[in-house]
Design a protein that fits this description.
- Helices cover 78% and strands 0% of the residues.
- It is mostly helical.
- Helix 3 (51-74) packs parallel to helix 7 (133-164), helix 3 (51-74) packs antiparallel against helix 10 and helix 6 (97-131) packs antiparallel against helix 7 (133-164).
- The protein has 12 helices and no strands.
- The radius of gyration is 20 Å and the shape is globular.
- It has helices spanning 3-17, 19-37, 51-74, 79-84, 86-91, 97-131, 133-164, 168-196, 203-210, 214-223, 235-238, 245-269.
Length: 272
Amino acid sequence: MNPSIAVALKEFQDGLRNRWFISITLIFAIMSLGLSYYGTLASGQIGAASLSATIASLSSLAVFLIPLIALLIAYDSFVGEQESGTLLLLLSYPITHSQLLLGKFIGQGMIISLATCLGFGAAAILLSIQSGPEQVIPAFALFILTAILLGLCFIAIAYLISLAVSEKSKAAGLALMVWFFFVLVFDLALLGLLIGVEDGLSQQNLVHLLMLNPADLFRLINLASLDTSDVNGVLSVAINATQSPMTLLITMAIWIIVPLFIANIIFNRKTL
């Protein structure tokens, strides 16, 4: 068996046995079902919310939760095993650094992908029963795909953190700082730039800046097809830009590949 596949299967089996998988799935399912069915409570009604409102609400919440969960899953993948001595033991087997990195990424990526499909798929089934699958399935398929890509982006970034530091506590602190920057600080800085620049930013330039943040890419892809009344903040200016969804998806894929590539370079040069 290929060493990367063996490591991936071990990581996946370990993930299924521990509480992470169950916890993530339950969080996503409760969040998606709650927003789908009780999203109309603000208007004094109980029932399934509109597809547009559900996707907008889920995108706004998922962009906070998915990066945090991905970072918490993966931040100690290497530095934690280095501190415990198991990383050196693993590398004593016939496996290269790159194969170990790829195997861990595939295994942990499978965990967050399965949890995302099961959790958010529950809301898709509910809305399909309520209003028919013709519009619900394509919208939720895109949402789930981009949610998985977002999780993979931050797993790759977590590996970069885990390999760049020598202590687990430093990795945890740096992971929280990265989450805080991409989820909160980045948009506030863009908003300040929009207000502070005399002539403002063009819509196209704003989208280019948003591409520097995988969390904003996730929201931009999912909200681009929605009514602008469901969108607030910086994204309300950018959602009508000319970038195609495929271009944005490719950019998200680059956000996975580049951190993994850099992490692989660091891992191969790292002295254990």
